[in-house]
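Supplementary Note 3. Input sequence used for the single-chain structure prediction.
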Amino acid sequence: MPSSTLDPATIPQEQCDALFAAVLAHDDIHLDAELPDAIHLDYTPEQFTACYRICRQIWRAGVKRSDLIAIIDKIRRHRSLGPQDQLAFKNIRARFKHLRFACVTFDEGHRYPFIFHCFTAVMGHLQDVFKNQHQAAAGRAAILLRVLLTRLPYAWLSMEIGHFTPSTTEAFRGYVNSQIGFLRSKLAQDEVTSQEFHDIRKVISRQVALYDNLKIVYPSDYHRDVSRYLSTINGMMGGVHDELIAKRLEGTHDYHANAFRMPREIKQRLIRLTGAYGKPHAEAA
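The predicted structure, written as discrete structure tokens, is reproduced below.
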């Protein structure tokens, strides 16, 4: 699908603002959140296009290459950022992450665009080391990001996200069910490594992003309830993962080898989630 087809005449600004607010609240914890008995996957290519379109719009409206270059150059020079620049970087990264999610979920290929993924991953690494005050590592990540911000890689990145073909309903079901199958396989283990825990959370984060879109573009109580339940799991897992990252950067924990028991309250919610897939449902999207 060419880029021009993705540029609608209008996407209401309040809808874009509502989606980005939802993106920023992707790990809010609602301990009273209830999951519907069954989760359905009956969405159409037209719905996938509408969801991708708004994700791309909030990225285009909030990401300026010149602004990001200025922030990265400050990190390279000073190894620090003021509160305003920290917030700006966080928001830009949130827009990148959400559009990357949209690519893998809504496009027929169900995979990350290569350059866009590299860019988003390096931003995540930079945020981790920056938050944990590892200045040397932050400097190296900033240099790599600055290279990716040169004109040719950035033009390639922009081209990648302009080419979109919506998934079929059947391919979407297959993609999501494969992700849920991965969760079930990990939940069957007594212990997981930090990397496996992170991989589980990535699946949950993608599902959170999916329902962020659905509850804004196609609002319903059903979409809202699934979103709240997933956001709660994401937030609970995020707190654990932050601790694991800090230990890895301190050199006290082998991220890929050391295994641990997943917190019981997280595992129970994940088991409840995976059990809701594949059941008959009464409500359509």
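Strands lie at 192-193, 259-260. The chain has a mean pLDDT of 90.
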